[in-house]
Amino acid sequence: MRGYLVFIILSCIFLYYVLHCILWRESIGWLRIVEMKRSPVLSCPLKPAFESLLSIRGIYPFMCTSDFKKIASLHESDKIALPYGVKNSVHHFYLALSSLKSCDLFPESDIVPCKKCVVVGNGAVLKNKTLGEKIDSYDVIIRMNDGPIRGHEEDVGTRTTFRIFYPESVFTNPDDDDRNSTGIFSVFKPHDLKWLWELLAGITPEVDYFWKKPALNLIYKPENIRILDPIITRIAAFNMLRFPTTFPKKEKPKHPTTGIIAITLAFYMCHEVHLAGFKYNFTDKSGPLHYYGNATMAVMSKNEYHNITAEQIFLKNIIDKNFVINLTKD
Question: The domain at 31-326 falls in which architecture?
C-alpha cells in the first residue's frame, strides 16, 4: 500500500512538471503581445570619433515584437544561445516582451540628431568631484545597476535617461527612482526573462536560479522598460573586449561588465560619448569600490566572471585615442 502511494505521488509530481513545462513553452499562444515597432533613428551627418570601432553598424539596441524573428535571423542571434543570442529562448523573450508596451529609443518629441552622451560608472573616483551639474547637462545620461542618485547629487547629478540592470542588480526602493528614466533589461539567462514576466504579471518569482536574491518588485512601469538586444552584449564581448568565443572547460566564461555594455550601447545611440566613474585603484584592495556603500576593491579582484584587466586595457585605449572623453581622469 505504501509503495502504491509513493508511486501515485511521484506520478503526480512528474505530471505536474511536464504540464508546467508545456504550458510555459506554449504560453505565448494565449498571450496578447503588443506589436512594438522600432522608432525611427535620427541619423547624424557627422562621423563619431569612435567610428572605427563599429565594425557592425546600424544596430537598433532594443528588442521589438514586430520583427523579432527577422532581426534575430539577421544578427544570427537565432544560432547562439543566451547570454548573447536567443536560440532555445524565443518563447521566454516573447513572454517578457508581452508584458512591455514599447521599444522606442527616444520620445517622438526628441529631435536632437547628434546626441552628446555620458556613461556614468559607479567607481569611487566620482567622490568629491562635484560633477553633478556637468553630468546633468548631457543629452543622454546612462547609468547602471543600483548606483544611487539620492544623497550623491552633487557628485553624480540628478537626471537619468537610461539605466541598465539585470535581476540581481536593480534597486527596488521607490526613493531611488530615476524620474522619467527608462530601465534597460540586460538578459543573461532564460530565468531572467521569466523573472521579468512574472514580476510584471504579479507573480512572485522563483529565486533559486540566481547568484544573488533578485528583486521581488520593480520601480519601473512596463512602458518604461526595454529589453536590450543580446547583439549589443555580444559586440561588447567579442568586438570591444576581444574575448574568445569559447573558454576551456575548467575556466568560467568571461562576460562584459554592465559598464562596458553601457559604453557599447552609447556607441549605437550617440554621436559623442563621455565617461565618468570608470577609474579604479587596483593596488589598494581595502580602498572603496563605489562612490556609495562600503564595498572594497577586494570584491572586484574576486570576481570570476569578468576580465577586469581586458576592460582596463580597452578603456585606456579608447581614452588615449580620444574616442571618448574621460571626465574623471584622476
Answer: Alpha-Beta Complex (3.90)
Instruction: Look up the pTM and report it.
Output: 0.90
Q: Which three cell numbers stand for residue 282?
A: 587596483
| 71-80, 120-129, 276-285, 301-310: the lowest-pLDDT one | 301-310
Q: How far apart are CA 220 and CA 217, in angstroms?
A: 9
Across the chain, the runs of DSSP E, i.e. the strands, are 116-120, 140-144, 162-165, 182-185, 225-227, 272-276, 325-326
Residue of 123, 107, 91, 105 lying closest to 25 (CA atoms) = 91
Scanning the chain, the segments in alpha helix (DSSP H) are: 2-26, 68-74, 90-98, 132-136, 153-156, 190-200, 230-234, 258-267, 297-302, 308-320
Angle formed at CA 65 by CA 64 and CA 67, multiple of 5 degrees:
85
pLDDT in tens, 110-123: 989 999 999 999 99
Beta bridge partners of 163: 143, 183
Integer Cα distance of 12 and 100 in angstroms: 35
Q: What would you measure as the largest C-alpha separation in the chain, in angstroms?
A: 80
Yes or no: say if 206 and 162 are a contact pair by the CB < 8 Å rule. Answer: no
